[in-house]
Amino acid sequence: MTAYLLKRLIIAALTLVLASMVVFAVMEVLPGDPARLMLGLNAGADQVELLRNQMGLNAPLLLRYLHWAGGLLSLDFGRSYTYSVPVIDLVRERIAVSLPLALIALALSTIIAIPVGVFSASRQGQAGDTLAMGAAQLGVAVPNFWFALMLIYLFAVWLRLVPAGGFPGWGAGAWTALKSLILPAVALALPQAAILGRVARSALVEVLNEDYIRTARAKGLPYRAVLWRHALRNAMIPVLTILGLQFAFLLAGTIIIENVFYLPGLGRLIFQAITQRDLIVVESIVMLLVAAVILINLLVDFSYAIVDPRLRGRQ
Amino acid sequence: MSLLEIENLSLTIGATPILKGVELTVAPGEVVGLVGESGSGKSMTALTIMQLLPHLARAEGRVTFDGIDILGATEDQMCALRGDDIGMVFQEPMTALNPVKTIGEQVAEGIRWHTKTSRAEAEDRARKILDRVGLPEAKFPLSRYPHELSGGQRQRVVIAIACALKPKLLIADEPTTALDVVLQAQILDLLRDLVRENRMGLLLISHDLAVVTEMADRLTILRHGEVTEAGDTARTLSEQQHPYTRELALASMHVPARPKPHLAGSARPLLEVEGVGRDYPGRRTSLFRPAQPIRAVDNVSLTIEPAQSVALVGRSGCGKSTLARMILALDKPTAGTIRFRGEAITGKAEAELKPARRDMQVVFQDPYGSFDPRQKVQRLVAEPLHLLEKQPAQAERREMVAHALHEVGLGPRDMDKYPHEFSGGQRQRLSIARAIITRPKLVVADEPVSALDVSIRAQILDLFAELNQKLGIAYLFITHDLTVARAMADEVLVMHEGKIVERGRTADVLDHPRSEAARALVAAAPDLHRAIARRIQEQG
After folding, report:
1. Is B259 exposed, middle or buried (0-12, 13-18, 19+ CB in 10 A)?
2. B387-414 per-position pLDDT tens digit
3. Is residue B532 situated within a structural domain?
4. What angle, 0 to 180 degrees and rounded to 10, lies between the N-to-C axes of helices A232-260 and A279-307?
5. Range of the domain at B466
6. Which residue of B has its CA nearest to A208?
7. How, if at all, do strands B442-446 and B169-173 pair?
8. Residue B160's domain is classified under what CATH number?
9. Does one domain contain both B304 and B393?
10. What is the mean pLDDT of residues B143-165?
């Protein structure tokens, strides 16, 4: 067990280091000199050079990487070129929106997907299954921003249950803040749930054909009990895998959804930073997102070991 | 009164008739054998009794268990019967247990479900039944997972699940087919004891006439969904009134004719294996200590002469398949050398192995798994031709494939078919055609007939014998089935825990085994003659 977890941990750490190198390298080769950008078009060459020296942009590549990477580890992400504040302050403010949003969406997609998968798998080939999988197909095909617009129209404009966009801040009370996250979370979760539901169904259908399901039936357990007690846990392994892989898409989705709902989250921050060529902010947020994806996948690896005793080895 | 009565049972799945007018009874304490070849409807009969049939299946007739009309019973009634009054054991122990639950949970689950006892009490009873089936607490605590057990141990767990509540009827569907003979004998003994202890009725389903004869008081023979003959085991098998019964009995004891026996010491060895060993990395017990390697094959030496047929027998896990893989240069030995036609093949690069590969081919156990389902027979059988020095032209290729197919008893028209269009036996013919197309000197056959029905098996054995006589091919048969060795081999090698423990002429080894491992194999191997003789004595 420990050997397995340790191995996963080391792989995750190595992935993170490798990703940081890639992110750094990509930022290096992108056109656009941040010093020139900060000083404006009218600045003289010597002024730019001076700023470049101040910002450490003229130091050797390796040194700059190490400086940057070392900064990341101590949560010193540098200063934003456009806002002239430490990036960490920007991030801290925005993550208070994006993190709850992503987590609610993740939870929501799982809560929807698994019952749908169970429902469909236990009615394989029947009308209910066809209907649910048809809906899931629709969910996979329709882009989330369109979902978002429909949700806004239905729940905000028409029913007036929740705000159409914006974020009042957690200071306005947990419920008020949460209310403005409901629609974006649903819009993010639905396409995820559609994919996950299909995976859950096919995994369950496969497991239900296994010999040990027949053994469980021969024990006298009714079909439902067999489904929940024996099949579901075995079907969780592919579901968890997809859940981990989908998390990256969920994060990418937040960039669009936060823009649609006008939420002051990381997604909008990175979007603005890109248009403003605020490379240091872009770098930092990309690294943060990469770290989040790696962390989730590490958790997925750990949960494999909980679900599947074969990975734990002999106790 | 009978415990189980099946009267005029017919079953269809969709529009396909599966069973036609099946009659069968099992009395308390009685062992009834249900014998038939694959597709005869044995398993479907069992699943009808359990009411675990596939979706589109429709059963008609009468099935009564202990006075309850099974075909008319509701699902709730069936749930109450299954696992409580009727237990069932399945063929494949490796997949019959849920991999994510402990054996304790899986045995206790049925007990809790039916008796509504507390968890502690159910676990207590689970412990007792596991002890009973030969899995003592010291080595097999309830917290063990299935993957920590071997096939035979897992089958004991399945039997424990089925017998935990002392059912009135146990249905065992090929319970020992996936196990080696020694384990088979142990499991059969266990089933026999459980029948005696609890006056349980046992419906034993098997394709193996010898196993059923050893076990059953009465037997029913099924063919294409119909009962061809039923009656007392001794009388049915000694009189063999129905031609199909005779056919089955003859096929299961079939020894192919080989008019030209091999004369040992007549030629330079074709294959020489010298001191070969193979280690696998073991499981690490600590982060800081290197893992202890597992020795799968240990200092093995053997020779095979041209046209000689040698059987390598041993229990599952004894290392015989690993040894075969090394002889075929599919795996590298960690020690020793293997010479083929006087040339060392160990440590050679793949390109240098081409001539050796040409003269050494393989036939695997599973004719279903050893073909790409999306390729036509012509391509599949022609596969080894890339080993030839000169690549034959398209027309010549077809000619060679047609010839190889002819030699194994198939027609040239079969060339353009796909593997799924053939039966199991025909597919094994295809794999033999693939093996002989390059005119090899040696064919390694890994359990080549153990997935086949007895009548097909007899035909395939005949084919092997014929090719040996006609083409002078030497064989290495890898098998746990001593009847194959007896039928086909000039010499027998007995392997045990990675070592060759005995070698000699087939009759000598099988009739007078000297090593303990060989004695255990011979004693455990079911033998139809012996079994019938004993039955006749018992049943008069």
Report:
1. exposed
2. 888 888 889 999 999 999 998 889 889 9
3. no
4. 160
5. 262-281+292-359+442-525
6. B98
7. unpaired
8. 3.40.50.300
9. no
10. 92
Burial class (CB in 10 A: 0-12, 13-18, 19+), B290: exposed
Q: What pLDDT was estimated at residue B533?
A: 87
Q: In A3-12, which positions are buried (b, 16+ CB within 10 angstroms) versus exposed (e)?
A: eeeeebeeeb
Asked if A230's CB is within 8 angstroms of B82's CB, the reply is: no
Distance from C-alpha of B464 to C-alpha of B487, rounded to nearest angstrom: 10
Is B65 in CB contact (< 8 Å) with chain A?
Answer: no
- Please count the structural domains in chain B: 3
Question: Do B57 and B161 share a domain, yes or no?
Answer: yes
CA of A314 vs chain B CAs: smallest distance (Å): 8
B540, part of any domain: no
The contact set of A with B (CB < 8 A) is: 2-3, 210-212, 214-223, 225, 229-230, 233-234, 307-310, 313-315
Residue-level pLDDT at A130? 92
Residue B530 forms part of a structural domain = no
Query: What residue spans define the domains of chain A?
Result: 2-73, 93-311
Interchain proximity B90–A310, CB inside 8 Å: no
Selected for mutation to probe chain A from B98, B139, B289 (highest A CB count within 10 Å) is B98
Residue-level pLDDT at B301: 94
What average pLDDT score do residues B1-15 get? Answer: 91
Residue A235 pLDDT > 80:
yes
Torsion of CA B314, B316, B319, B325, to 10 degrees: 100
Contact B98 A217 (CB under 8 A): no
B216 and B343 housed in the same domain: no
Residues B235, B132, single domain; the answer is: yes
| Amino acid B155: pLDDT | 92
Nearest residue to B91 (alpha-carbon basis) of B47, B131, B128: B47
How many angstroms separate the CA of residue A221 from the nearest CA in chain B? 6
pLDDT at position B511: 92
Is B80 part of the contact surface with chain A (CB cutoff 8 Å)? yes
Report yes or no on whether pTM surpasses 0.90.
no
Same structural domain for residues B327 and B419?
no
Of the segments B219-228, B273-282, B453-462, which one has the largest average pLDDT value? B219-228
For chain A, say whether B533 makes contact (Cβ under 8 Å): no
pLDDT at position A315 over 50: no
Instruction: Check CB contact under 8 Å for A309 and B81.
Output: no
- The dotted CATH code for A93-311 is 1.10.3720.10
Q: Which two tokens stand for residue A198?
A: 């299909």
